[in-house]
Design brief:
This protein is an alpha/beta fold. It folds into 2 domains: 116 residues, Rossmann fold; 99 residues, LytTr DNA-binding domain (OB fold (Dihydrolipoamide Acetyltransferase, E2P), Beta Barrel). The chain is 29% helix and 34% strand. It has 8 helices and 15 strands. The longest helix has 13 residues. The two termini are 24 Å apart.
């Protein structure tokens, strides 16, 4: 999802930028210190999500939000709880009270419907991987998981492994996020291959066990556990 930040405090900007960078599926397009600058930007560009502070110079975040005819998804970020009721009347996704953790940030973004978080395009069913001097065709559905290892990633299929120079982030941009998700700083798993989850571990077919990183567990549970 393409997103922007509207926040006048540099420390808060830095935290949001880090959280956005660390969460797969978010792409920061721009950061603004006041809402009027953002308003000019939105006349020319479209975004899917706005992280919006309430106490801003010139006009408040609430007034800015009311001025938008067809607003994207909005997550409010503020140090004050006074506007919570009013903000929900404006159909914001969530109301984050500063300071908030990465886990709370992930929970807020995960409230956006999955279909809105997935780019509207067709994902590839097959891909060619360079193996030595050859390019080998891989069926995406057959992939069990992808592991980051130093300067390359390892694609693991039943009884076969391939090395790739692409990063985990690049793989996530290529793969369908409804089927593949990052569960650890070093692992992406094919959710169709998951057989069970026990504590901090995911079990895949072929008796494979993958750890769940604490930073990714809340989003995984929110999306896949019922």
């Amino acid at each position: 999802m393409k997103c922007i930040i509207i926040e006048d405090q540099p420390p808060a900007q830095r935290i949001l930028k880090k959280y956005i960078h660390d969460m797969e599926g978010l792409h920061l397009k721009a950061t603004f210190s006041d809402a009027l600058q953002a308003l000019d930007y939105l006349k020319q560009e479209s975004v899917d999500l706005i992280f919006l502070d309430i106490h801003l110079p010139k006009i408040s975040g609430i007034d800015f939000l009311k001025s938008l005819n067809n607003p994207p998804y909005v997550i409010l970020t503020t140090a004050f709880s006074d506007y919570a009721i009013e903000s929900y009347e404006l159909s914001v996704v969530d109301y984050l009270l500063k300071p908030f953790s990465f886990q709370r940030f992930v929970k807020a973004v995960s409230k956006i419907p999955v279909e809105s978080r997935i780019a509207a395009h067709t994902y590839r069913k097959e891909i060619f991987i360079k193996s030595g001097y050859e390019h080998v065709k891989i069926t995406i559905d057959d992939m069990l998981y992808i592991k980051s290892d130093a300067d390359y990633t390892e694609l693991v299929l039943p009884q076969k492994k391939y090395l790739s120079a692409d990063s985990l982030r690049q793989w996530l941009e290529l793969l369908n996020p409804e089927q593949f998700t990052r569960v650890h700083k070093s692992f992406i798993v094919n959710t169709r291959k998951i057989t069970k989850m026990v504590g901090g571990q995911i079990y895949l077919t072929d008796k494979i066990v993958i750890p769940i990183g604490r930073a990714y567990k809340d989003e995984f549970v929110a999306r896949f556990i019922r």
